[in-house]
Amino acid sequence: MSTEHGGDAEAPNSRIRTLGLVADPDLPQQVAEHLAEELPEQLGSEEDEWRIEVDVDPVAAGQHGTSDILEATRKRLERGGWDYAICITDLPVRADRRPVVADTKIDQRVAVVSLPTLGGTQPYRRARQVVLQLVDELTAQEPDEGRYGLDSRLTELVAPIRREQEPAEHSEEEDHDEEIDVRYSATRNRGRLRLLSGMVRSNQPWRLVFGLRSALAAAVATSAFGLSSSTIWQIGDRLGPTRQVIAAVLSVAVLVLWLITAHGLWEKQRDSEVDRERSLLYNVSTLATLTIGVGCMYAGLFVINLLTALFLVPPGLLASSLGHEADFTRYLTLAWGFTTMGVVAGALGSSLESDAAVRQAAYGYREEQRRSERRSEQEDEQKERRESSAD
Question: Which of 58, 126, 138, 171 is paired with 261 by a 20 to 30 Å CA distance?
């Protein structure tokens, strides 16, 4: 899928340049389409007019380094007749145990940006900063990391980004980068934390709530049963705040572990050190994604239960059942107990979810899915070439 964006009008003597943004599906596609709206104006000048084309193509599927991604991007550049091409991927890329923000091959006029390395907040703004920086590299302008805010005080504090020219090859690299001209990378420790937050953002954990329909239905049904039972009201009233918090945390943990086990979301450890670290990143991001998603479901269910209790249970009835005055805090306790019980029951309902609905929270699954789509596309292209040559 390809879309084109350009300036409103051509200047009489301006030179037209075309930048292709090759994006993975999901968040990279959203970022690329957003950039396509902004970049023509920001890149344009009296001498140059820029046109931006977005092509959604999972060229990074099955890759763990940038050399092959850059080569696939170069081929897409040639097919599209673009002047420059930048791949935007949600694949976490590392080299020398440091997260890679971006790599460029200047002579081939291509570059790649790894979105997760930019962190979990403000991906659109940070992607724009990096892409503008890469355009400067590709067009042979004098690179200035401070021009677009890559060296801002906050970035330097959280996870500094460093520019390397012609980075050296390392024996433990995921990516054989001897052909990389310029690399932007983050620091090892702080950069890894930022990478994890970016991976969780790419997983879009809030979407998990809508994928857990069966679990949510089971949780709501169980909460409704609790609302009708005065015995459960009394049990919830006797629990102290500490036990309530522990019960809530355990209910979320039970549902998360059930989802991981029932749907096979845990990446198996590989033999090599690089594969082990990659599996660790995938597993931690999956665990964090599921925890946030289930936590959002818990919060939403709590609000629903609180409003329902306030509407259906009169204070006098609640007070007579509990044996003491029923103020607003008692309704909070009531809703808290229903919600915790409902989320535990939701673990059983989650077994009825389709694997596809839940596995979108796992990096490995999405990567395998895109790899299959990529292979299918390549087989179709080969079939078309064979048919055309036979004719």
Answer: 58
